[in-house]
Amino acid sequence: MSKIIGIDLGTTNSAVAVMEGGSPKVIPSAEGRNLIPSVVEPDKSLVGDVAKRQMVLNPQNTIYSVKRLMGRKMGDAEVKKTQGMVGYEIVAGKDDQARIKVKDKTYSPQEISAKILQKAKADAEAYLGEKVEKAVVTVPAYFNDAQRQATKQAGEIAGLTVERILNEPTAAALAYGLEKKKTETVAVYDLGGGTFDISILELGDNVYEVKATNGDTHLGGDDFDQRIIDHIAAEFKKDQGIDLKADKQALQRIKDAAEKAKVELSSSSETEINQPFITQSKDGQPLHLTMKLTRADLEKLVDELIDRTMGPVKDCLKDAKKEPKDIDVVILVGGQTRMPKIQQVVQDFFGKEPNKSVNPDEVVAVGAAVQAGVLMGDVTDVLLLDVTPLTLGIETLGGVMTPLIDRNTTVPTSKSQVFSTAADNQTSVEVNVLQGERPMAADNKSLGRFILDGIPPAPRGVPQVEVVFDIDANGILNVVARDKATNKEQKITIKGSTGLSDEEVEKITREAEKHAEEDKVKKEAVEAKNQADTLIFTAEKTLKDAKDKVKSQDKEEIEKKIKDLKDVLDKADKAELEAKTKDLSDALQKVGASLYQKPEEEKKSRSDESDRGSSTKKSGPGDKDKSGAQEGEVVEE
Amino acid sequence: MGKVKLENQLKRAVADYQNLKKRFDSEKLDYVKFANAVLLDKFLSVFDDLERAQIHLKDAGLNLVVTNFKNLLDSEGVAEIKVKGLAFDPTTMDCAELSAGPKDQVVKVIVKGYTLNGKVLRPARVKVGSGASKISDKKL
């Protein structure tokens, strides 16, 4: 079965999304953006950004806002209003249907919309690498039968079977996964580029009912931009006496600056508009536009626009016979709802924080993809894979937590790593299974521990113990430790390693952040000590193996440095330990180098030993490149 | 849930994963080539300002700065889109204004356009001829 895509066919912009690996993904257009401007030049078959760029050149042939005409008759008030604002010609067709005349051809709104759907289809096919023949397309909740039928026809003209026409507010609710919850009353506040919609839905048992819908078809983000442009131009005129709006190039620059300022003021409280050399004074001197705009300024400018949305909100609630307190969930849709003031006004009215975590430009397309996924049988509980909420690992030398499976890894999964012993002739290791985000073992939760014994006696660092962590789809963790020499193994099964409440996970994560700095210091101290310890061992071994091949004065120097380091091993701070470790390491390297100058066969045997002894890395399958301290050691008994 | 259904879901999940891997590989190549696109686009607006300043100030030092900046963009694979005198092409240009001049030809570049490794980073913003002849400034 081929994929079904979800398409948000918008008035200003459209977007397309698809289910992938069980979660929705917005498909980027050929131009590399997630949105396709709903603009079409039918004569040259230009769609999207490309059509928008030639709009000024070709206003009679460039169709935008075609959604306002879908399934409508010439006599409709909306058609009359649209006629007054667009540059193309709207004529009466069969049965007084609204048609668009471009050159000597007439197009139905369906045909124009089909071009947008065709592009969405082509972009999806390029992205997925397969043919796409089916789609879920969204429409406003207030669309009547004729308008829905027209949308369906548009899909057919584009070569898509429209599997479902979905209401936009319902799509938004689906994007938030609300259909899985108990019965809820949802308010969807949708402020797009040119239209405002408010809808009240009731969800439950896979039934979505639109209780009421209201709005203003001529209010949107573009009006907000215009207010800022007017403000900038007015201020400049006050200061310099020049009307920037009369200069088309300057006006274009203010437009860009206004939009940028609007976006910036959603995340910061103040922004600076800097447009050097925007125009010239009457005596030919260059003039610059520099202006500060605060969030409060912006809010004052658009206050009336935000107010205008609240009338329809109240009417809609009344129609649905609901009070603000009856609303369980509020969802924000449309780019303009990124504005903090709008979020505040909505929150104050409904008395609860609105959902805004899904990108408001994409939320409708995402919901359409979710619905498409349901139709494909993609979205079921079976495919909801869990993740490990916290990092899982084991305790290694010096009480360090060595992670094996990082937090947020999707399960089922399995990871393995090879460790070694910390002391000579160590015949058993203890595996302490840990869960948490802190670098020191003691600060994390121990899920269980076991001992693997029967390891043949060998110098430290030689035995290879493979530790395997395996989490199945139910969150059950199996930890196995296996001695690679004897194949002897021990294991433990831990249930509910993923079963933590959100609060617990959050608390543990917060703790880790709080202690991050001191934990780092602690861990580094342990690592420095481990490194020093390893080097002492290596140095002693080198001296013993080399016997009289080391000059006596070198030997004395190394012995002295070993003693120095041993003396401070348990009491010195990290810096001193590191300094003394470096001293010893340098002296040892000098000896190592001189040993290499000995005869051939001797050189060979020395280098083997020296390799094993002084390297901080140990080879072994699955062994990661790690620092000397952690390397290869399971905690000593 | 039926076995067949589960099997289908498994197949789809595995297929999704394999496709994702393939796309990840191809996107990785693109990523290397276009990772800087957002940053470079932001630089371009400052570069525009520098060029505007140079038109007015005609300063030798500033000229060097502009040249250095240009060389930097060049070394990152950013190239100016040549549009002057050509026919309007919406894939690389954005028509901001109409003016007197040969029909559908670029009469003036308002803001230069650039490509990054062959892909349009920013279309050129241009003034396009309407076909009307230029009205003479000279009074009779």
Description:
Chain B: One of its GO terms (molecular function) is protein homodimerization activity. Chain B: Pfam families: GrpE. Chain B: This is Protein GrpE. The complex is a heterodimer of chains A (637) and B (140). By secondary structure, chain A is of the alpha+beta class. In chain A, 38% of the residues lie in helices and 24% in strands. In chain A, strands 1, 2, 3, 4, 11 and 12 form a six-stranded mixed sheet that branches. A four-stranded mixed sheet of chain A has the order 15-14-13-18, with helices on both faces. In chain A, strands 20-19-22-23 form a four-stranded antiparallel sheet, with no helix packed on it. In chain A, strand 11, helix 4 and strand 12 form a beta-alpha-beta unit. In chain A, helix 3 packs across helix 4 (145-157), helix 6 packs across helix 7 (248-264) and helix 12 (516-546) runs antiparallel to helix 15 (600-614). The radius of gyration of chain A is 35 Å and the shape is elongated. Residues 600-637 of chain A have low confidence and may be disordered. Chain B is of the alpha+beta class and 140 residues long. Chain B has one domain (36-139): Head domain of nucleotide exchange factor GrpE (Nucleotide Exchange Factor Grpe, Chain A, domain 2), CATH 2.30.22.10. In chain B, 49% of the residues lie in helices and 21% in strands. Chain B has helices at 3-34, 37-57, 60-75, and strands spanning 78-80, 93-99, 106-111, 114-116, 119-122, 124-129. In chain B, the strands form two sheets. Chain B has a three-stranded antiparallel sheet with strand order 1-4-5. In chain B, strands 2-6-3 form a three-stranded mixed sheet, with no helix packed on it. In chain B, a hairpin with a 2-residue loop joins strand 4 (114-116) and strand 5.
